[in-house]
Amino acid sequence: MTYDLILKGGTVVSPGGMAQTDIGVKGERIAHIGDLTGVDAGEIYDATGLHILPGVIDSQVHFREPGLEHKADLETEARSAALGGVVAVFEMPNTNPSTITPDALTDKLAR
From which residue to which does any coiled coil extend (predicted)? Predict the structure, then answer.
């Protein structure tokens, strides 16, 4: 099999523990975890010395919008989360007004 991307030799952290191994990616999905020596890929990235973790869920974020945009906003905080490996968030309703209804969420996303 040919992969779009192979991450070579990274320390893969999974529920089963940690192991220095390779990851083969096809499309947007992990297709194989294990030795991929001699396997072709569109791109091969040397991950030696790096840790590869599953996406993180942050269960308490503060996007500050509406009402506290001078501190941060939805765009800056979402970008920061993504750069840190966060794939899902639960926002605390500590804005003014609180984002606790479908209409308030629609308004926030339209900003």
Answer: none
d(CA 54, CA 42): 22
Residue 19 amino acid letter = A
Average confidence score pLDDT of the chain: 91
- What is the pTM (predicted TM-score) of this model? 0.65
Asked if omega into 66 is within 30° of 0 (cis), the reply is: yes
Q: To which CATH superfamily is domain 3-52 assigned?
A: Urease, subunit C, domain 1 (2.30.40.10)
Q: For residue 87, which phi and psi values (nearest 5 degrees)?
A: -110, -10
Domain ranges for the chain, please list them.
3-52, 56-110
d(CA 71, CA 66): 11
